[in-house]
Here is the input.
Amino acid sequence: MDREAQAQVGTAGPGPGVRIAAARGAETLDVIRTRGVVRSYTDEPVGDELLDSLLEAMLAAPSASNKQAWAFLAVRAPERVRRLRAFAPGIIGVPPLVLVACVDHARMTGDPHLRDVGSLCVAMAVENFLLAAHAQGLGGCPVSSFLAEPVQLLLGLPGHLEPLLLVPVGRPDQPLQPSPRRAPQEVVRHEYWHPTHPG
Amino acid sequence: MDREAQAQVGTAGPGPGVRIAAARGAETLDVIRTRGVVRSYTDEPVGDELLDSLLEAMLAAPSASNKQAWAFLAVRAPERVRRLRAFAPGIIGVPPLVLVACVDHARMTGDPHLRDVGSLCVAMAVENFLLAAHAQGLGGCPVSSFLAEPVQLLLGLPGHLEPLLLVPVGRPDQPLQPSPRRAPQEVVRHEYWHPTHPG
Here is the structure.
């Protein structure tokens, strides 16, 4: 990657003559870049208006063949969140909101390829949800460590809705810590994956 | 969902007294909401600086257990894009850039659950890539309709890198058309999935 270009991308604001669209892009890039895992939350609730904005962003995600083979449940009642946590060791703190993101098998054929692609769309919807949360001062993380069957029973999910990810979200109770990451040149290459540099 | 709250979210700008953070959130929400599928592109190339900004956003995606079991190849050489298209009926127009998003099986154990979760992280990274593109006036879409083996051979991908999604991106050559979507109340519920409303 071009280090100089990356340094420019990392600077705070647009220079003179930059178009409005570019300025808007810079802010969105900043939100995407600074999102981080949040596992510990204040007890401030997530209100209806804020939740609706997250759900709207979520449903704008790409959907393969526009099948929208997905379903989402927003859980905020403290007693239900408490029970969910009992089946989800991946939820560490006590969040005011848990999104339950499901694949809807009733909207797929039996083709396992389609099933896999449907899961990818659910993941993209969850990322939209997390970005919309971070943009508004909330944080969370996708959790795959949970027991699907008890969760289905607890939430009255019909058999064709498979919970794929739980997403606890709330106001972070401490500053975001960026996750250490592999060097970009280890995971991104251009044009051809040279066999002399095993990934 | 609360219709009134949603209408407020849909308005253009923050009212008086809204904090900076909220204003920033409104812009990011707008980028997320207005992203759409782009399948037809002008022949304007995607420059290094712009590509780097997309890649940086992409690598900021969540990663389960921070394994980063992913690898990405950015293809811009027109002849290589042309060959890629021959194996990818899902790529309709002629894009100036194709991202090849891969799962890295060398960074997973044999646990099939981890393999699936790794795919979800790649999907979230692709969504970041697409949002960063849309924020800067580009567009694209995730493509799963391609022949993985010829793509691996063409790009010199080692066996442990499985191409999961191809992502053509470029400057849209026509206005974005929003995809028709299922009614939100069909796919989102609160607290409990009532069995009297089959999803």
Summary: Chain A has seven helices and five strands.
